[in-house]
Automatic annotation (TrEMBL):
This is Gamma-glutamyl-gamma-aminobutyrate hydrolase family protein. The keyword ATP-binding does not apply. The keyword 4Fe-4S does not apply. PANTHER family: GLUTAMINE AMIDOTRANSFERASE PB2B2.05-RELATED. One of its GO terms (molecular function) is hydrolase activity. Pfam families: Peptidase_C26. It comes from Carnobacterium inhibens. CDD domains: GATase1_2. Keywords: Hydrolase. SUPFAM superfamilies: Class I glutamine amidotransferase-like. It comes from the Bacteria.
Length: 242
């Protein structure tokens, strides 16, 4: 049977086209990437954190997508004037999903906000806005169309990311929060040219985690290399299943 991949969903409010009805969703690029990797995507609605164990027991891997800012209260800071919208219910549910996935040794693939959320879940911290980073020299919210790579990253060639892309690649970028302190269970494996962490992986060989700051789901139609992140993720789930 094909692996089932749980995608942590978001909620859309006040959509004028739908008479303001709240809508649970995930960006189509994640669905396409998982399906093209020959797995079955299942979108999780934002739910009670106590139900995370039940959700994870039904799937073979967890995908965390982009979206709202991660609340700085989770890493001991008050919200700055630069903080964007947050969703505390989403934060709480996704942190529970991450911890349960790690407990069940289910592979994780985290994108943008997902990377930040996983880091915070295990004690890491964030820059609430990249402008707070003292060595900022690279544009991290690109003005170029988001399906196009906009800045270069340097990659550890021995990492999972490195085995896909080599030691350097051009990625898109659409984030204003960024990793400040990386949580202890993880190791940085890619960096922007101004030194911000662009990807990390789990240190433990028992846990399969790949987290990236860019948006591969948007680049897939124009850069086939990005599909390899989804294919690798599904292969990691199959390896765990066996």
């Amino acid at each position: 049977m094909k692996p089932l991949i749980g995608i942590a969903g978001n909620i859309l409010l006040n959509n004028a086209d739908l008479n303001g009805l709240p809508i649970t969703y995930t960006p189509q690029g994640f669905v396409n990437g998982i399906r093209q990797a020959d797995a079955i995507p299942v979108v999780f609605p934002i739910s009670d954190p106590a139900e995370a164990k039940d959700y994870l027991s039904k799937v073979d891997g967890l995908l965390l997508a982009g979206g709202q800012d991660v609340s700085p209260l989770l890493f001991g800071e008050e919200p700055s004037l630069k903080l964007g919208a947050t969703n505390p219910a989403r934060d709480a549910f996704e942190i529970a999903l991450v911890k349960e996935a790690i407990h069940q040794e289910k592979p994780i693939f985290a994108v943008c906000r997902g990377l930040q959320l996983v880091n915070v879940a295990y004690g890491g911290t964030l820059y609430q806005d990249v402008s707070d980073y003292p060595d900022l020299t690279v544009q991290h919210i690109q003005l170029t169309h988001f399906e196009t790579g906009a800045h270069t990253i340097t990659i550890d060639p021995e990492s999972k990311i490195g085995k896909i892309f080599g030691d350097q690649y051009v990625v898109n970028t659409y984030h204003h929060q960024a990793i400040k302190e990386l949580a202890e269970p993880f190791k940085a494996v890619a960096w922007s040219k101004d030194g911000l962490i662009e990807a990390f992986e789990a240190k433990s060989p028992n846990q399969s985690i790949v987290a990236v700051q860019w948006h591969p789901e948007l680049m897939i139609p124009y850069d086939l290399m990005m599909q390899r992140l989804f294919t690798d993720f599904v292969k990691r789930t199959i390896k765990k299943m066996n």
